[in-house]
Amino acid sequence: MTGLMAGKRGLILGVANDHSIAWGIAKSLHDHGAELAFTYQGDALGRRVKPLAASLGSDIVIPCDVEDIASVDALFAALDERFTDGIDFVVHAIGFSDKAQLKGRYVDVTSRENFSRTMVISCFSFTEIAQRAAKRMRRGGSMLTLTYGGSTRIMPNYNVMGVAKAALEASVRYLAGDLGPEGIRVNALSAGPMRTLAGAGIADARLMFNHQRAHAPLRRTVTLEEVGGSAVYLLSDLSGGVTGEVHFVDSGYNIISMPRPDVLQA
Ligand code: NAD
């Protein structure tokens, strides 16, 4: 505990279980003194999220399905009753696409319906959350969303999620430009592949793990603690001059161009 986040209150969207990236971030924020509110999607996940939140001393656990804008408004109304003095940060760690379309060629499998649904849940929901969170950040604040390198480079099977992440990263820049004058910073954390529910929805995710381990400069995947630590940096005053950025926490995978010659020749 450093007290880096002492006196700061925030909202975490996207905990499904104790493997969730949002959970890793929540634990690190709690370790550094933050006070947290959580959301959950549906009653089944709520039964998992409530005890996790309680283990970090939080009884603020509110349902929210970002596909339903009334649910988003109800979330903020409920949050106002608990955090009456506003909030200091928000973490958006939400993504969804039809699993059947995260397999095969993007050009073949992508439907209009799932494209729209993926964009609303995985991209536009961050803008809708930011619109509401900004009104509650009276002392300035920091917003963070989660992205993946499939936004700028093609990854087999990542497909429409890559397109949504590209739009999400562009949203980060537009939101940062708009909210900067109010002292609100907006950034994205681009995590390497992690074993989560959402991660398991991508076909051949195992190959992405193996490729990362073989070729990333650090020769390994990243941990929830490492993602959590970088999130604390982006959400705390340590990164006070940083906004509109995509910050990679991926063992350096994003800097490589071709696979290692020794692996190719093996
Ligand atoms: P996860 O399955 O633990 O979390 C995804 C969350 O999104 C779940 O809590 C789920 O309830 C929520 N969600 C989906 N649809 C929703 C809706 N309509 N309303 C409200 N919540 C909804 O998986 P994760 O890997 O922790 O995913 C968190 C974020 O991290 C996602 O944006 C994902 O794209 C991103 N990310 C994941 C990886 C990875 O390898 N796992 C890598 C980089 C980025």
TrEMBL record:
This protein's record includes keyword Transport: no
Protein EC: 1.3.1.9
Pathway listed: Lipid metabolism; fatty acid biosynthesis
Gene Ontology MF annotations: enoyl-[acyl-carrier-protein] reductase (NADH) activity
Catalytic activity: a 2,3-saturated acyl-[ACP] + NAD(+) = a (2E)-enoyl-[ACP] + NADH + H(+)
One of the GO biological process terms: fatty acid biosynthetic process
UniProt-listed InterPro entries: Enoyl-ACP_Rdtase_NADH, NAD(P)-bd_dom_sf, SDR_fam
Alphabetized UniProt keyword annotations: Fatty acid biosynthesis, Fatty acid metabolism, Lipid biosynthesis, Lipid metabolism, NAD, Oxidoreductase
CDD domains the UniProt entry points to: ENR_SDR
Alphabetical list of Pfam families matching this protein: adh_short_C2 (PF13561)
Catalytic residues of the enzyme: Y148 (proton acceptor), Y158 (proton acceptor)
Residues annotated to bind NAD(+): G14, S20, I21, Q41, D65, V66, I94, K165
Record bears the keyword Lipid metabolism: yes
Domain of life: Bacteria
Family: Belongs to the short-chain dehydrogenases/reductases (SDR) family. FabI subfamily.
Name of the molecule in the record: Enoyl-[acyl-carrier-protein] reductase [NADH]
